[in-house]
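sorry to bug you again but im stuck and you know this stuff better than me. theres a chain ive been looking at and ive put its sequence and its fold in C-alpha coordinate form underneath. id like you to explain what the C-alpha coordinate line says about the fold, in plain words if possible. anything you notice is useful, everything is just below.
___
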Amino acid sequence: MAYFHYQDKKVYYEIHGEGKPLILLNGIMMSTKSWGIFLEAFSASNQLILLDFLDQGQSDKMTEDFTQDLQVEVLRTLLAELNLEKVSLMGISYGGEVALNFVTKYADKVDRLVLFNTSHRTSPWLKDIGDAWNLSSGNAMDYYLTTIPVIYSPEFYNRNRGWMDARKKLLTDTVFSNKAFMDSMVRLTRSAETHDVTEGLKGVTTRTLIVSSEQDYITPKEEQMALHKLLKNSDHVILPGAGHGSMYEKPALFTALTLGFVNAKTLDMTVL
Protein backbone atom coordinates (compact mmCIF):
# COMPACT_ATOMS: atom_id res chain seq x y z
CA MET A 1 0.00 0.00 0.00
CA ALA A 2 1.93 2.98 -1.27
CA TYR A 3 1.99 6.00 -3.54
CA PHE A 4 4.13 7.16 -6.43
CA HIS A 5 4.02 10.47 -8.24
CA TYR A 6 3.00 11.09 -11.81
CA GLN A 7 3.82 14.69 -12.60
CA ASP A 8 2.33 16.56 -9.62
CA LYS A 9 -0.24 13.87 -8.71
CA LYS A 10 -0.10 11.07 -6.12
CA VAL A 11 -1.13 7.66 -7.45
CA TYR A 12 -2.13 4.85 -5.09
CA TYR A 13 -1.13 1.20 -5.57
CA GLU A 14 -0.88 -2.05 -3.63
CA ILE A 15 1.30 -5.15 -3.96
CA HIS A 16 0.25 -8.57 -2.68
CA GLY A 17 2.19 -11.82 -2.91
CA GLU A 18 5.19 -12.84 -5.00
CA GLY A 19 5.75 -14.38 -8.40
CA LYS A 20 4.94 -13.44 -11.96
CA PRO A 21 3.62 -9.83 -11.87
CA LEU A 22 -0.05 -9.32 -12.71
CA ILE A 23 -1.71 -5.89 -12.67
CA LEU A 24 -5.49 -5.60 -12.36
CA LEU A 25 -6.94 -2.48 -13.99
CA ASN A 26 -10.18 -1.12 -12.56
CA GLY A 27 -13.48 -0.59 -14.28
CA ILE A 28 -14.66 3.01 -14.31
CA MET A 29 -16.54 2.98 -10.97
CA MET A 30 -14.06 0.69 -9.25
CA SER A 31 -11.03 1.14 -7.00
CA THR A 32 -8.39 -1.11 -5.48
CA LYS A 33 -10.92 -1.93 -2.75
CA SER A 34 -13.17 -3.57 -5.36
CA TRP A 35 -10.78 -6.54 -5.66
CA GLY A 36 -11.02 -7.58 -2.00
CA ILE A 37 -12.69 -10.95 -2.57
CA PHE A 38 -10.02 -11.89 -5.13
CA LEU A 39 -6.88 -11.00 -3.18
CA GLU A 40 -6.16 -14.43 -1.72
CA ALA A 41 -6.56 -16.35 -4.96
CA PHE A 42 -4.76 -13.83 -7.17
CA SER A 43 -1.77 -13.38 -4.86
CA ALA A 44 -1.26 -17.09 -4.10
CA SER A 45 1.17 -17.62 -6.99
CA ASN A 46 1.55 -14.15 -8.48
CA GLN A 47 2.80 -10.74 -7.50
CA LEU A 48 -0.58 -9.04 -7.60
CA ILE A 49 -0.49 -5.30 -8.24
CA LEU A 50 -3.55 -3.09 -7.82
CA LEU A 51 -3.76 0.47 -9.08
CA ASP A 52 -6.17 3.37 -8.68
CA PHE A 53 -6.13 5.45 -11.83
CA LEU A 54 -6.14 9.21 -11.42
CA ASP A 55 -9.66 10.32 -10.44
CA GLN A 56 -10.23 6.89 -8.84
CA GLY A 57 -10.10 5.59 -5.29
CA GLN A 58 -7.18 6.83 -3.23
CA SER A 59 -5.32 8.48 -6.11
CA ASP A 60 -5.43 12.23 -6.59
CA LYS A 61 -8.31 13.91 -8.37
CA MET A 62 -8.03 15.82 -11.61
CA THR A 63 -9.51 19.26 -12.11
CA GLU A 64 -9.75 19.35 -15.91
CA ASP A 65 -10.83 16.90 -18.60
CA PHE A 66 -8.27 14.40 -19.92
CA THR A 67 -8.08 11.34 -22.17
CA GLN A 68 -7.14 7.74 -21.40
CA ASP A 69 -3.63 8.53 -22.60
CA LEU A 70 -3.11 10.03 -19.15
CA GLN A 71 -3.91 6.68 -17.49
CA VAL A 72 -1.59 4.90 -19.94
CA GLU A 73 1.31 7.06 -18.78
CA VAL A 74 0.34 6.53 -15.14
CA LEU A 75 0.60 2.78 -15.74
CA ARG A 76 3.94 3.15 -17.51
CA THR A 77 5.24 5.19 -14.57
CA LEU A 78 4.11 2.46 -12.16
CA LEU A 79 6.18 -0.12 -14.06
CA ALA A 80 9.20 2.17 -13.89
CA GLU A 81 8.61 2.78 -10.16
CA LEU A 82 8.63 -0.98 -9.50
CA ASN A 83 11.49 -1.74 -11.95
CA LEU A 84 9.28 -4.14 -13.89
CA GLU A 85 10.39 -4.89 -17.42
CA LYS A 86 7.34 -6.95 -18.34
CA VAL A 87 3.95 -7.66 -16.74
CA SER A 88 0.64 -9.30 -17.48
CA LEU A 89 -2.40 -7.03 -17.51
CA MET A 90 -6.02 -7.80 -16.75
CA GLY A 91 -8.45 -5.00 -17.49
CA ILE A 92 -12.22 -4.96 -17.19
CA SER A 93 -14.30 -2.39 -19.11
CA TYR A 94 -12.56 1.01 -18.64
CA GLY A 95 -9.46 -0.78 -17.37
CA GLY A 96 -9.46 -2.97 -20.46
CA GLU A 97 -9.60 0.12 -22.65
CA VAL A 98 -6.57 1.56 -20.87
CA ALA A 99 -4.80 -1.79 -21.31
CA LEU A 100 -5.51 -1.71 -25.05
CA ASN A 101 -4.18 1.83 -25.35
CA PHE A 102 -1.13 0.77 -23.31
CA VAL A 103 -0.33 -2.22 -25.50
CA THR A 104 -0.49 -0.11 -28.68
CA LYS A 105 2.35 2.04 -27.25
CA TYR A 106 4.26 -0.35 -25.01
CA ALA A 107 3.64 -3.86 -26.33
CA ASP A 108 7.17 -4.88 -25.32
CA LYS A 109 6.19 -4.41 -21.67
CA VAL A 110 3.16 -6.75 -21.77
CA ASP A 111 3.57 -10.51 -21.45
CA ARG A 112 -0.10 -11.53 -21.53
CA LEU A 113 -3.27 -9.51 -21.78
CA VAL A 114 -6.70 -10.44 -20.39
CA LEU A 115 -9.69 -8.27 -21.34
CA PHE A 116 -13.13 -8.62 -19.78
CA ASN A 117 -16.11 -6.71 -21.21
CA THR A 118 -13.88 -4.41 -23.23
CA SER A 119 -14.34 -2.54 -26.51
CA HIS A 120 -11.67 -1.43 -28.96
CA ARG A 121 -13.54 1.85 -29.50
CA THR A 122 -16.19 4.02 -27.94
CA SER A 123 -19.04 3.35 -30.34
CA PRO A 124 -21.98 5.75 -30.78
CA TRP A 125 -23.94 3.32 -28.56
CA LEU A 126 -21.37 3.54 -25.77
CA LYS A 127 -20.92 7.30 -26.18
CA ASP A 128 -24.66 7.88 -25.72
CA ILE A 129 -24.69 5.63 -22.64
CA GLY A 130 -21.89 7.73 -21.18
CA ASP A 131 -23.74 10.95 -21.98
CA ALA A 132 -26.82 9.61 -20.17
CA TRP A 133 -24.67 8.80 -17.13
CA ASN A 134 -23.27 12.33 -17.05
CA LEU A 135 -26.65 13.99 -17.58
CA SER A 136 -27.99 12.15 -14.52
CA SER A 137 -24.95 12.88 -12.33
CA GLY A 138 -26.61 15.71 -10.42
CA ASN A 139 -29.06 13.40 -8.63
CA ALA A 140 -27.91 10.31 -6.70
CA MET A 141 -31.00 8.19 -7.36
CA ASP A 142 -31.17 9.20 -11.03
CA TYR A 143 -27.53 8.23 -11.42
CA TYR A 144 -28.05 4.89 -9.67
CA LEU A 145 -31.03 3.97 -11.86
CA THR A 146 -29.22 5.06 -15.01
CA THR A 147 -25.97 3.21 -14.32
CA ILE A 148 -26.33 0.25 -11.99
CA PRO A 149 -29.19 -2.01 -13.18
CA VAL A 150 -27.74 -2.41 -16.70
CA ILE A 151 -24.34 -3.41 -15.30
CA TYR A 152 -25.77 -6.78 -14.27
CA SER A 153 -27.74 -9.49 -16.02
CA PRO A 154 -31.47 -9.42 -15.18
CA GLU A 155 -31.26 -12.84 -13.54
CA PHE A 156 -28.43 -11.78 -11.21
CA TYR A 157 -30.06 -8.44 -10.39
CA ASN A 158 -33.42 -10.04 -9.56
CA ARG A 159 -31.99 -13.01 -7.65
CA ASN A 160 -29.75 -10.91 -5.39
CA ARG A 161 -32.35 -8.41 -4.22
CA GLY A 162 -31.00 -8.09 -0.70
CA TRP A 163 -27.48 -7.36 -1.92
CA MET A 164 -28.72 -4.95 -4.59
CA ASP A 165 -30.99 -3.08 -2.15
CA ALA A 166 -28.12 -2.66 0.31
CA ARG A 167 -25.90 -1.48 -2.52
CA LYS A 168 -28.54 1.00 -3.66
CA LYS A 169 -28.73 2.53 -0.19
CA LEU A 170 -24.94 2.74 0.16
CA LEU A 171 -24.42 4.26 -3.26
CA THR A 172 -27.26 6.77 -3.14
CA ASP A 173 -26.74 7.81 0.49
CA THR A 174 -22.97 8.29 0.32
CA VAL A 175 -21.09 7.59 -2.91
CA PHE A 176 -23.35 9.13 -5.55
CA SER A 177 -24.19 12.01 -3.19
CA ASN A 178 -20.52 12.95 -2.99
CA LYS A 179 -19.85 15.83 -5.39
CA ALA A 180 -16.12 15.14 -5.61
CA PHE A 181 -16.77 11.52 -6.57
CA MET A 182 -19.39 12.48 -9.14
CA ASP A 183 -17.14 15.13 -10.69
CA SER A 184 -14.49 12.42 -11.05
CA MET A 185 -17.01 10.07 -12.65
CA VAL A 186 -17.97 12.69 -15.21
CA ARG A 187 -14.30 13.28 -16.10
CA LEU A 188 -13.55 9.54 -16.26
CA THR A 189 -16.54 8.99 -18.54
CA ARG A 190 -15.48 11.83 -20.81
CA SER A 191 -11.93 10.50 -20.90
CA ALA A 192 -13.17 7.42 -22.76
CA GLU A 193 -15.04 9.34 -25.46
CA THR A 194 -12.07 9.39 -27.85
CA HIS A 195 -11.07 5.77 -27.20
CA ASP A 196 -10.36 4.07 -30.55
CA VAL A 197 -7.44 1.71 -31.08
CA THR A 198 -8.73 0.16 -34.31
CA GLU A 199 -5.62 1.13 -36.28
CA GLY A 200 -3.14 0.83 -33.43
CA LEU A 201 -3.96 -2.83 -32.72
CA LYS A 202 -3.26 -4.07 -36.23
CA GLY A 203 0.40 -4.75 -35.50
CA VAL A 204 -0.02 -6.03 -31.96
CA THR A 205 0.86 -9.70 -31.39
CA THR A 206 0.58 -9.85 -27.59
CA ARG A 207 -0.99 -13.12 -26.40
CA THR A 208 -4.52 -12.06 -25.41
CA LEU A 209 -7.66 -13.55 -23.88
CA ILE A 210 -10.89 -11.67 -24.63
CA VAL A 211 -13.91 -12.45 -22.46
CA SER A 212 -17.47 -11.41 -23.29
CA SER A 213 -20.71 -11.72 -21.34
CA GLU A 214 -23.80 -13.01 -23.08
CA GLN A 215 -25.99 -10.34 -21.44
CA ASP A 216 -23.64 -7.36 -21.49
CA TYR A 217 -25.80 -4.34 -22.33
CA ILE A 218 -22.97 -1.79 -22.11
CA THR A 219 -20.23 -3.42 -24.19
CA PRO A 220 -22.13 -6.13 -26.14
CA LYS A 221 -20.34 -9.30 -27.18
CA GLU A 222 -20.25 -8.05 -30.78
CA GLU A 223 -17.68 -5.48 -29.64
CA GLN A 224 -15.40 -8.24 -28.32
CA MET A 225 -15.93 -10.26 -31.49
CA ALA A 226 -14.64 -7.28 -33.48
CA LEU A 227 -11.73 -6.91 -31.05
CA HIS A 228 -10.88 -10.59 -31.49
CA LYS A 229 -10.61 -10.03 -35.25
CA LEU A 230 -8.24 -7.12 -34.71
CA LEU A 231 -5.93 -8.98 -32.30
CA LYS A 232 -4.41 -11.79 -34.34
CA ASN A 233 -2.93 -13.63 -31.36
CA SER A 234 -6.11 -13.71 -29.27
CA ASP A 235 -8.70 -16.15 -27.99
CA HIS A 236 -12.32 -15.27 -27.31
CA VAL A 237 -14.63 -16.72 -24.64
CA ILE A 238 -18.29 -15.88 -23.98
CA LEU A 239 -19.71 -16.28 -20.47
CA PRO A 240 -23.33 -17.47 -20.56
CA GLY A 241 -25.90 -15.73 -18.38
CA ALA A 242 -23.59 -12.92 -17.24
CA GLY A 243 -23.80 -9.16 -17.58
CA HIS A 244 -21.22 -6.38 -17.76
CA GLY A 245 -20.21 -6.88 -14.11
CA SER A 246 -18.90 -10.34 -14.90
CA MET A 247 -16.27 -10.43 -12.13
CA TYR A 248 -19.03 -10.33 -9.49
CA GLU A 249 -21.55 -12.48 -11.34
CA LYS A 250 -19.07 -15.23 -12.21
CA PRO A 251 -16.18 -14.83 -9.72
CA ALA A 252 -14.93 -18.42 -10.04
CA LEU A 253 -14.81 -18.22 -13.84
CA PHE A 254 -13.24 -14.77 -13.67
CA THR A 255 -10.49 -16.13 -11.43
CA ALA A 256 -9.92 -19.36 -13.35
CA LEU A 257 -9.82 -17.72 -16.76
CA THR A 258 -7.49 -14.91 -15.72
CA LEU A 259 -5.00 -16.92 -13.69
CA GLY A 260 -5.13 -19.91 -16.01
CA PHE A 261 -4.32 -17.78 -19.04
CA VAL A 262 -1.69 -15.61 -17.39
CA ASN A 263 0.19 -18.49 -15.78
CA ALA A 264 -0.17 -21.18 -18.46
CA LYS A 265 3.08 -22.33 -20.01
CA THR A 266 3.46 -22.15 -23.78
CA LEU A 267 3.26 -25.68 -25.12
CA ASP A 268 5.62 -26.99 -27.77
CA MET A 269 3.19 -28.57 -30.23
CA THR A 270 6.03 -29.93 -32.39
CA VAL A 271 6.61 -32.78 -29.95
CA LEU A 272 3.11 -34.24 -30.42
Notes: Residues 161-175 form the longest helix (15 residues).
